[in-house]
Predict the structure.
Amino acid sequence: MSIPKKLFIDNYDDNRFLASDDGKYKCAVGIYKGICNYFGVDYKLESEDELMSREYEELKAENDRQNDIINQMGTELEELRNTAKSVIYDYVDGNMPEWARPTIQKLVDKGFLKGDEEGKLGLTYDLMRMLIINDRAGVYGK
């Protein structure tokens, strides 16, 4: 590859590659080899194993960093799911979603929902959704 070819950047990937340390190093090696070949001089570089080892370590470090982020996101998502599932709606009040209140109040008024001995309904979000769906389907009447 000639020197002018290395200096011609016609797309984003080439630009990003040449801006990276690895890209600069590979271009420098290519130019070095070209000059040595032109003058008939032997050249000596790091072994290919050392180059591959360095690239592997850089990629492994980046992969580990990304895995840490993914694992943290998974942990946070699981915590969020557990928090959302643990909400219990005991009363028809401001804590209950507004969309659920009319149906739940109707079911309490009709005696379909009575709660425990303290009057706590103990409704989960999923149970409220099911009750709303049934009510919209006309299961509980008007």
Summary: The helical segments are 3-7, 12-19, 21-39, 48-85, 101-109, 125-136.
